Amino acid sequence: MPKKAGVSQVSIYNYFGSKQQLANEVVIYYIDQEWMKYEQLIHSDLPFPDKIQQIVFDKKRLADEINENFYTYLMNEYVAGGYIKQIYNEKAVPLFTELLQEGKVRGFVDENLSSEAMLLYLQMLNESMQKKRNL
């Protein structure tokens, strides 16, 4: 990394303080970049089914691109209640609720399906991710 940045390894450590802090900053940068893409997609004029399709295919793209060690680090960060969990709670849940409402308004999601039921489903997925990490 120092070579790509055109600085010495000492400069990297002086700036970030430790490998852990550098890793944390990389995670924050990565999450912020991906989050901006999702916000733009959900707030775009694309039809609801296209948004869902892009979200699904993007998850596959991320799964294919992401290094297994980085994925493990991200899951550990999430379980530890760090930045990823904060983004999930403060931004992802409200944005997903907004997307669900759009689907209802446009007739793609059953109006009788409550936001609470969908959020419960999301919570179950999150708990599943945490359990897989602990195996």
UniProtKB/TrEMBL annotation:
<dbReference type="InterPro" id="IPR001647">
    <property type="entry name" value="HTH_TetR"/>
</dbReference>
<dbReference type="InterPro" id="IPR009057">
    <property type="entry name" value="Homeodomain-like_sf"/>
</dbReference>
<feature type="domain" description="HTH tetR-type">
    <location>
        <begin position="1"/>
        <end position="34"/>
    </location>
</feature>
<keyword id="KW-0238">DNA-binding</keyword>
<dbReference type="Pfam" id="PF00440">
    <property type="entry name" value="TetR_N"/>
</dbReference>
<protein>
    <submittedName>
        <fullName>TetR/AcrR family transcriptional regulator</fullName>
    </submittedName>
</protein>
